[in-house]
Design a protein that fits this description.
The chain folds into 3 domains: 16-171, 2-Layer Sandwich (Beta-Lactamase), CATH 3.30.450.40; 198-266; 277-390, Histidine kinase-like ATPase, C-terminal domain (Heat Shock Protein 90). It has helices spanning 16-37, 87-95, 114-119, 159-180, 184-226, 232-266, 281-285, 311-330, 362-372; strands at residues 44-51, 57-65, 77-79, 99-101, 124-132, 135-144, 277-280, 293-298, 306-309, 337-344, 347-353, 377-381, 384-390. It is an alpha+beta fold. The chain is built from 9 helices and 13 strands. The strands form 3 sheets. The protein has a 6-stranded antiparallel beta sheet, sandwiched between helices. The chain has a 5-stranded mixed beta sheet with strand order 8-10-11-13-12.
Length: 394
């Protein structure tokens, strides 16, 4: 080796203090990703890439989640080319893109770590390369082990796309923020509090759901064992208990979606360095081109209107709004949502009419804040919600 690989030299341009701050933020971010992607059994490591004095390309494990577990080999060093090439890691470095191993046992890219996969029951792996400066100097690796489900979901709203967006946020927001030093602590504290709240709440909801399911199963067995000869009052009481377990299941599911929606949206209220783009009203209405929505009245030519906004915020707003409505309507009246649009002054107003808006909660208030960061506004009127976004002034 001549000391280079993919033009990647680990020659820090910053002080050790700044690098320490960056790596502390990467640890917090890895915890955040593990909480969201592998929440049933959080597993992640952060590896620092560097060259040793002999010019050999190496890695060091600088963080592991769970922190008190010895399964990650904290402080362990290894070579990327010896004794065999670490194919999956090198692919992530070379491509500077998220590498997904859906089946860790059978994928040839993880052949070099087959014993590790088997002994630690790793089902799937995601490797996120992180650039520091203009080269990849860190890898965040997420493992899916039981009871987390095997594989990473695809599609526009899937886990793989989320990890790609996370990579972008880390490189453009987290690392610059850590290097600047001014807002780092506030950002990290916010992330840690938010992740802690999510993890604690979801764990409790899972516990409630487990007890509720067992209670429901026991009630079913009891009713079946008693048969038709049971006293009318006893039967009525048992049926009431069955209805109560169904209500608990519905409400706990709603709470789970609310807290996850809040978490996803809260990450987007921070300032963004993303370049604004011109987005058509037709593009926005495309989010609601599904059978659960009915397109009502629309001003003539409104689909030719454009707004100026950050694409990720627009996508987050309407994608999360759809998820919110899906949960509320599936667990509520099941009515379809009526969509209407109009131009009001210098704003495009999108009106969504559904019974779900009669009850305003924290998630809806966060939607309101997110729209505000886009120079628009959001209002609730009994059974409807109006989103106003500024139109492009031609």
């Amino acid at each position: 080796m001549d000391g280079t690989f993919n033009n990647c030299h680990f020659v820090p341009d910053d002080t050790f203090d700044i690098i320490a701050k960056v790596e502390e933020c990467l640890k917090s971010t890895a915890l955040s990703l593990a909480t969201q992607i592998t929440r049933l059994n959080r597993q992640a490591v952060v590896k620092r890439l560097f060259y040793d004095s002999d010019g050999k390309y190496k890695y060091m494990i600088i963080a592991g989640i769970p922190e008190k577990s010895d399964r990650h080999g904290l402080g362990e060093e290894g070579f990327l080319f010896e004794p065999v090439e670490k194919t999956a890691l090198l692919e992530a470095v070379n491509s500077n893109d998220v590498v997904i191993i859906q089946d860790a046992y059978r994928d040839p890219r993880t052949q070099y770590m087959r014993v590790h996969v088997e002994t630690k029951n790793i089902q799937s792996v995601a490797i996120i390369p992180i650039k520091y400066g203009n080269v990849v100097k860190y890898l965040i690796i997420l493992d899916k082990v039981p009871p987390s489900q095997k594989g990473f979901t695809e599609g526009k709203e899937g886990e793989i796309e989320f990890l790609r967006q996370a990579k972008h946020r880390i490189e453009t927001k987290v690392i610059p923020c850590a290097k600047a030093g001014t807002d780092t602590n506030l950002y990290v504290i916010f992330q840690q509090l938010l992740n802690g709240l999510l993890h604690e709440t979801l764990n409790r909801l899972m516990s409630i759901g487990g007890f509720n399911n067992r209670t429901g199963n026991q009630l079913d067995k009891l009713i079946s064992a008693l048969g038709d000869g049971v006293d009318a009052q006893v039967k009525e009481l048992l049926e009431k208990l069955q209805r109560n377990t169904a209500t608990i299941k519905k409400e706990s599911t709603l709470c789970e979606h609310n807290i996850k929606g809040f978490h996803d949206l809260a990450r987007l209220i921070l300032p963004t360095e993303e370049i604004e783009e011109m987005i058509s009203a037709k593009h926005i209405l495309g989010y609601f081109a599904e059978e659960n929505y009915v397109l009502g009245s629309s001003d003539n030519g409104i689909e030719k209107s454009h707004i100026i906004a950050h694409p990720s915020k627009v996508d987050a707003l309407f994608s999360q709004f759809k998820k919110y409505l899906a949960v509320r309507t599936n667990n509520g009246n099941g009515h379809k949502t009526l969509i209407s649009t109009k131009k009001e002054g210098s704003f495009l107003e999108i009106c969504l009419q559904n019974e779900s808006f009669r009850e305003v909660n924290t998630v809806l208030e966060l939607f309101e804040y997110l729209v505000g960061t886009m120079n628009g506004w959001l209002r609730f009127h009994e059974d409807r919600c109006v989103i106003a976004l500024p139109l492009y002034d031609e």
